[in-house]
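Changelog entry

Holo records now carry the ligand SMILES as an explicit input line rather than a separate metadata file. Below, a converted record for adenosine-5'-diphosphate, shown in the new format.
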Amino acid sequence: MVKDDDLKGAIRSGATTAPEIADHIGKSDSATRRRLKKADDDAQSKLVRERNPRGSGYIYAIADEDQEADSEMPVFGDRDYDWSQYVPRAGATAEYVETNGELSDIESIIEHRHDTGQLPRFRLTGPPGTGKTTLARYIGAMRQWPVIPVQFTAAMRDSELFGSPHIIGGESVWVDGPLVKALLCSQERPVVVVLDEINRAPFHRKASLQSFLDHRAQATLMLRGGEKIEGDPENLITVATMNEGTEYETFPIDPAERRRHGNTWDVPFLGLVDADLEAELVADNTPVSIDVARVLVRAANEVRELAVADRTSPVENGIATSIVLEWARTTVAYRQSNRSDPLTRAAKTAILRPHYSGRAAEEAEAVIHDTVRS
Ligand SMILES: Nc1ncnc2c1ncn2[C@@H]1O[C@H](COP(=O)(O)OP(=O)(O)O)[C@@H](O)[C@H]1O
Ligand SMILES: [Mg+2]
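Structure line, unchanged by the conversion:
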């Protein structure tokens, strides 16, 4: 019989993979593996696993090891939150330009959720820079609902989601994390939680999201002696975003988790759906004229076509709207200081150098030059 304490002892001694742990405790690989999986599935256990970034299989760790449970610990500010402080100020959030009906779809689901009984869980996928984060915040901003953003990272700990003890004035004080605040807020009013770039966090950090996202709308604070925080699932509007592309490391997301994040929209490059609309967005948000904006969007679309439709091209990533905006602003700066060829110079420093390399850079550059000159 393999015991949890032995597993933890092995991990504390430096074993990370199942065979290493088995070796350390002198049990069989298969028995050890079964017990490890069980411990990982058990929300009460602090033993967690994630995919081994340097090989196949999993590695194991102990979450928030150094902290002891204490139900007597006072809560910072006594949970006397002023939710109006979380409502985006007018003008502080960019207006989202709808690409493919995604905003209208989400609005209908939110509006009719009480009749349909559907949980307001949404997921946005697509290349970086297509406005997913902007859309998520805009959903709250347009209704003047509080917005609580959570940026996921590879090194993220559960305490960054749910809260952790801090030493304040020599005393241990519990500070609520963003998800606990969201649950508390949802008891009173609708709140939008932006789970941004959720696929940058390893799987185990997200396992703890389960009861938060499903009909329970609940979090259990182990370090406060198992305190349960319950929200109103219909008032808890969650928008998870997932950047897709080859540009940085992400973790796979399993079907059960995908399901919990709800209806999903792929947010494509705006210009490929409506070039005029993207040109207007660029002209509205930067000092370039609508005519220049149109040229930029046309060039961006040529590169996007290579990335999206041409399988023989080395160009794998298209030019996102955010990059077109950078290109526009850089062009204006170069033009105002009379740099030669401001448009193509700006293409080099704002698009090609930061986002492309090798043959992809050459091909993207050629396409941009052809379009700009024509
Ligand atoms: N459809 C859009 N509507 C409004 N702004 C957009 C749109 N697409 C991109 N942007 C702008 O581009 C920048 C990057 O957008 P962001 O929301 O961070 O993209 P993502 O989250 O998809 O990476 C922001 O300044 C945003 O205002
Ligand atoms: Mg984003």
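Spot-checked after migration. The chain has a mean pLDDT of 90. The first strand starts at residue 47 and ends at 51.
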